[in-house]
Amino acid sequence: MVDFTRPITHTRYKYEKKLKKYYHRVEKEILETPNTLRLKNNLEWEKNRYTDDHFISYSIKGNILPFWGGGISWFLVISGLFADDTFDGFGLYVYIFFCVLAIFFTVYYFTKPKKEQILNRRDGLITMTGFYWQNNITIPFKDCLFAYTTGGEDGTGAFNLQTIRPTQSWLNSFDDFGVGQGDCYKDMSFICWYMDKNRPLPPGTAFDAYRDRDYERRKAAGFPRPLYPSNIATPEATKEQQAERKRIGGW
To answer: Which of 77, 111, 145 is the last residue of a domain?
Structure first.
């Protein structure tokens, strides 16, 4: 098992009351059955994900923005050298603007900190990426606030799950935190199911190797009641385990 424990960097939001009234908030609850998380090649490490009963870590390199931003900017800068009106009037200011952008994205690409997104089920923590050069942020999951994207005028890019970064400014930024479920409510359902360590692990072969160990841990604790609400049943792996949970835990 790989240890993805990260030190807590934040425990609250400076403008929490205001943010809790944010129109695009997504509450922490299980609304629907998420898609199963499958394990390929019987390995904990997948191409972009590590999965066990304590941690899920997503590989976030943060290269997409500087790659595309820098690539387009450098293309315009170089192509501008061959245009006749690049350095005439307003065209000069536009050219300087793209030169600055190209340098900015290039410097960022080579100097950005390591980007991580981690669900720490064992300790109840979530790690999100920082804004540009800001270090990664780790906050208790129970205190983390989520929202969804609004997308463009045609709805493209809408309803993707995001975490709200707990910055100390009134102007908060967001980290895209979708886990491949398709929309913000399924993503939130999966994350809450996984992060609720009083429930059994979510469905999927990615967790099968850990179900018995997780069951015995919860049984030793007396099957405490769930931490987050659910609109669907989250049963144990077997009928015998379900009956024992009901007898000991009462739910």
So the answer is: 111
